[in-house]
Amino acid sequence: HLAEAEAAMRRRVNRRWMEAGVTLIDPETITIEPGVEIGVETVIQPGSLLRGKTVIGSRCQLGPHTLIENSVVGDDCSVIMSAVRGATLTAGSQVGPFANVIATGTGQD
What we know:
This protein is an alpha/beta fold. The protein is built from 1 helix and 14 strands; from the N terminus they run H-E-E-E-E-E-E-E-E-E-E-E-E-E-E. The protein has one helix at residues 2-19; strands spanning 23-24, 31-32, 37-38, 43-44, 49-51, 55-56, 61-62, 67-69, 72-73, 78-79, 83-85, 88-89, 94-95, 100-102. It has a 5-stranded parallel sheet, with helices on one face. The longest helix is centred in the N-terminal third of the chain and has 18 residues, at 2-19. The termini are far apart.
C-alpha cells in the first residue's frame, strides 16, 4: 500500500508541475518532492529525481537520469545524466554528462 500511496503522490505533484508550464517527458519515471520549485518552460527527462530544498530556474533542460538535491539551478541551465548536491549553478551553466557536483563543506565529499 505504501508504494501505491507514493505513486499517487508522485502523479499529483507531477500533474501540478505540468499544469504550471513544466514539461515532463515521462512523468511516471520522474520524482519531484513537494518542496521543490521549478520555473516555467523547464523540460525534465525520464529517470530524474528532484529532492529537498531545490529551486530550478526557467527554461532548464534536466536529465535524463539526473539527481538534483538541495541545490539552486539558475535559468537556462542544462544538467544531463549527472548529480548535483548542495550546489548553486549560475544561469546558463551546463553540467554533464556523468558529472557529480557537490558543494564544498556539505559533508558529502
